[in-house]
Amino acid sequence: MSVKNEMLLLLLVIICIKYTYSWSYNPYCWLAECCNKDAIPGDINKLRKTLKDRVYGQHLVETVVDALAAHWSSHYKPSKALTLSFHGWAGSGKNYVSKFIAESLYKRGTKSKHVHHFIGRIHFPLEEHTEMYKENLYIWLKGNITNCAKQLFIFDQVDKMPANVLNAIKPIIDYRDVVDGVDYTKAIFIFLSNTGSGLINEYYEEQWNKGKKREELRLRDFENLIAQGAFNEEDHYIPFLPMQESHVIECIRDEFRQRGVMGPSPLHINEAFEFIQWGPDHSKLFSKTGCKRISAKVGVLVAKYYRPVNEGNDEL
Q1: d(Cα 140, Cα 146) in Å, to the nearest integer?
Q2: Do the beta carbons of residue 120 and residue 159 sit within 8 Å?
Q3: For 5-14, 45-54, 288-297, which range has the lowest pLDDT when averaged over its residues?
Q4: Per the UniProt record, which residue ranges are transmembrane (predicted)?
Q5: Closest CA to 277 of 267, 266, 289
Q6: Contact at 8 Å (CB) between 288 and 279?
Q7: 3-class state of residue 181 by DSSP
Q8: Which of 73, 97, 182, 271 is deepest in the core (most CB within 10 A)?
Q9: pTM of the model
């Protein structure tokens, strides 16, 4: 092969490598998670489709998709970190939606080193340690965002935290380009809470009794109810409506599908459905636990009725 042909071949190889690994020129990123487009694709279309296909009865969460798309838009630099506040009964989908956000924005989803999940009762259990929590939290946030601007922080059980812990992040999520030498504007904070869930349910039941369709309700109908007891630093309050019979059945079907059972027997759907407790006492309109306990029940049913014939027959 001539020198000219060798040079052309080498150039072709370099071009192929460039386009194959255009997400990173750092070989380290081929094996580990970096702060780049490959690790953080920010796939808004994936999120929109996932929420449409796998979240039931929560049309108001569509606002989340638009908020995220605007925040990480390549045509606009945000003036502050994005803060989302999810409110509703247990099992209404707050953690579910948070997981889908992480899985759509980050290649490694909830396992990404850029995704951080704090749980009130576990990470901030004692009122007397509030000042320590605040200091440690601020250091943790600053360190991670310094390393990579596009971080996702999920705070679960906000209503179970000592009242002043989140004051540590107020300077971070305010309208400032830089705080203590760090730009926090591309970070995302999601707060999950049961605060306001009773008011949300009461208001929804009132509207349902008046004949108003669920899909006709808008965010503005709930924002004042939620804001009364929220952190009050959020950009968007998202109410998660209580789950009714049709939504619970869809959750059951979805859990069967996730286990490879595309057409579960109506008898088995009903068997999972029988575990649901309903409230309030005067109407029995809503599932008291939403779809929270369905996964475990369906798992048992799949193991019982749909496991492969030869499963468990392997010799030890």
Answers
A1: 10
A2: yes
A3: 5-14
A4: none
A5: 289
A6: yes
A7: coil
A8: 97
A9: 0.87
